[in-house]
């Protein structure tokens, strides 16, 4: 699975959140968020679900 980083950034902008705020909402470190969103490869379903839950989005909308 590959994250749609553009969609995540759009959601962050819509909520007026920083990646730091996303990390706080997810209960993870800022470094973890930067690492996941900077990664060029895939990610786990659990990661997608955690990001979607924090953003209030549908997980399938965050995937390419």
What does this structure look like?
The chain has helices at residues 5-15, 19-26, 30-38, 45-55. The model has no long low-confidence stretch (mean pLDDT 92). Helix 2 crosses helix 3 (30-38). With 64 residues, it is an all-alpha fold.
Core attributes:
64 residues, 4 helices, mainly alpha, 0% strand
Blueprint of the fold:
Layout: H1 5-15, H2 19-26, H3 30-38, H4 45-55
Mean pLDDT: 92
Summarize the amount of helix as a percent range: 55-70%
As a whole number of angstroms, the C-alpha radius of gyration is 10 Å
* Strand coverage percent: under 5%
Distance between the termini: 8 Å
Number of strands: 0
Counting H and I runs of at least 4 residues, what is the number of helices? 4
Biggest sheet: strands, sense, closure?
A: none
The string of secondary-structure elements, in order, is HHHH
Which residue ranges are poorly predicted, with pLDDT under 50 across at least 5 consecutive positions? Answer: none
CA-based shape: globular
What is the SS-derived class? mainly alpha
């Amino acid at each position: 699975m590959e994250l749609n980083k553009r969609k995540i950034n759009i959601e962050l902008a819509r909520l007026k959140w920083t990646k730091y705020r996303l990390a706080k909402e997810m209960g993870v470190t800022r470094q973890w968020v930067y690492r996941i969103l900077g990664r060029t490869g895939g990610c786990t379903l659990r990661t997608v679900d955690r990001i979607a839950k924090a953003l209030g989005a549908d997980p399938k909308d965050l995937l390419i």
